[in-house]
Design goal:
Structural class: mainly alpha
Oligomer: single chain
Shape: globular
Number of domains: 1
Radius of gyration: 17 Å
Distance between the termini: 27 Å
Strand order of the largest sheet: 1-2
CATH architecture: Orthogonal Bundle
Order of helices and strands: HEEHHHH
Helix content: 55-70%
């Protein structure tokens, strides 16, 4: 019956949005897979700027797309390892931190109009990055003891902090202020 009214069922829209977000992720991520820090385990990841965007503006489909995109990137770059399970979990939890803090727990609608709101985003960026490093680095060290734990954890933290701060926040300001884009999960 939903198709008769011209609207797609919610589950179909969810899947199509997730697939589109995975495609965007891969278009941005794959070209940078050659910039390895620890080959097969971590690299320079500008795609991390999408982490807050996916979590805040797209909610759960964005979180799933971020994790699936990372997993597909591992497959495409011949970096798929047992530790990719931890990578999948961490790359879901990264955007989920933004979804949780900025959409579900915040008492106000999402905005980046004041210094206080930007500092709140910085705090979520740091929490998200620490979470990713705490999930991935120990799993890699446990499964692959020869990997430099500190370099891995530091690289994960830097990727998860620098790119969202320098590229993600400006993109979200542009999306919200200039393009009028509102989070799909925006409080009414």
């Amino acid at each position: 019956m939903a198709l008769k009214t011209g609207k797609l069922p919610k589950s179909v829209r969810f899947c199509l949005m997730t697939l589109l977000l995975v495609l965007v992720y891969l278009i941005i991520a794959v070209p940078f897979k050659v910039m390895s820090v620890i080959p097969g385990f971590t690299d320079i990841r500008p795609v991390m700027f999408l982490k807050p965007v996916y979590g805040i503006f797209f909610g759960i489909p964005g979180c799933i797309a971020f994790a699936v995109g990372n997993l597909i990137g591992d497959v495409m770059s011949d970096s798929l390892r047992w530790s990719s399970i931890a990578g999948f979990a961490a790359n879901f939890l990264g955007p989920f931190a933004f979804y949780l803090f900025c959409v579900k727990l915040s008492k106000t609608s999402f905005s980046l109009r004041t210094v206080k709101e930007i500092l709140k985003q910085l705090a979520v960026i740091i929490i998200s990055s620490v979470t990713e490093a705490v999930v991935i680095a120990p799993a890699v060290k446990l499964l692959y003891p020869d990997v430099d734990f500190l370099l891995l954890a530091f690289t994960i933290f830097l990727n998860g902090t620098v790119f969202p701060l320098l590229l993600g926040i400006p993109l979200m300001i542009l999306m919200q202020e200039e393009l009028g884009f509102k989070p799909l999960t925006q409080k009414k």
